[in-house]
Amino acid sequence: MRFLCHWAAALILFPVAGIATAADEACPALLDHRFPRLQDDQPQNLCQYRGKVVLVVNTASYCGFTGQYDGLEKMYARYKDQGLVVVGFPSNDFGSQEPGSNKEIAEFCRLTYGVKFPMLAKTDVVGSGTNPLYKQLASLTGERPKWNFHKYLIDRSGQKVLSFPSTTAPDSRSLVTAVEKALAARP
Q1: Residue pLDDT, tens place only, 150-183
Q2: Element (DSSP H or E) covering residue 110
Q3: How far apart, in Å, are the Cα atoms of 185 and each of 33, 82, 160?
Q4: What's the average model confidence in pLDDT over 137-161?
Q5: Cut 0.70: pTM above it
Q6: Active site residues
Q7: What is the 3-state secondary structure (H, E, C) of 26-64?
Q8: DSSP 8-class letter at 119
Q9: What is the pLDDT of residue 10?
């Protein structure tokens, strides 16, 4: 019994080297943001995605690129178990193509495209009201969205970001290759 007490005390005083949990790791500054969830306005901390590859997309329901929801959902389903998270940010910044309320947008995404990847509340991705994540993404890549369905791919470390224009479809070779490469890399 005395041995067990000494062993337990040693673990408390001298944690096993090399063992770290996700809770022990600091949240990368890029992911250190909270946004309301689309469906119910509950705050979501993007730190929950640390250690994952994150594809951030500004979306709209009435756009020529709206069909990309289907490809984004397929990509999410295909790679989520390997650590990919697709995060949608509905925005009305381009051509007023996202005029609905959060509830209307959530219903449209669910009923029309079966979207299961995380969707956050409607936000600004350009202009004076740009949300802080999009400000950082634009600063890191030198590219801001020029239209709906612009994509930013954040690596597992939350440090490296790639930018893809709206014309890059979710099943395009360039995006799929970048996602697979990011998933294969370990921070």
Answers
A1: 999 999 999 999 999 999 999 999 999 999 999 9
A2: helix 102-113
A3: 24, 11, 12
A4: 97
A5: yes
A6: 63
A7: CCCHHHCCEEEECCCCCEEEHHHHCCCEEEEEEECCCCC
A8: B
A9: 46
| Burial (0-12, 13-18, 19+ Cβ within 10 Å), 30 | buried
Which of 162, 37, 32 shows the shortest CA–CA distance to 90?
A: 37
CA distance 19 to 16: 6
Provide the angle, in degrees to the nearest 10, between the axes of the packed helices 102-113 and 68-79.
70
Are residues 152 and 56 in contact, defined by beta-carbon separation less than 8 angstroms?
yes
Say whether 149 sits in a helix, a strand or coil: coil
Averaged pLDDT of the chain: 90
Query: Which CATH code, of 3.40.50.300, 3.40.190.150, 3.40.30.10, 3.30.457.10, is assigned to 26-184?
Result: 3.40.30.10
Q: Would you tell me how many other CB atoms lie within 10 Å of the CB of residue 7? A: 9
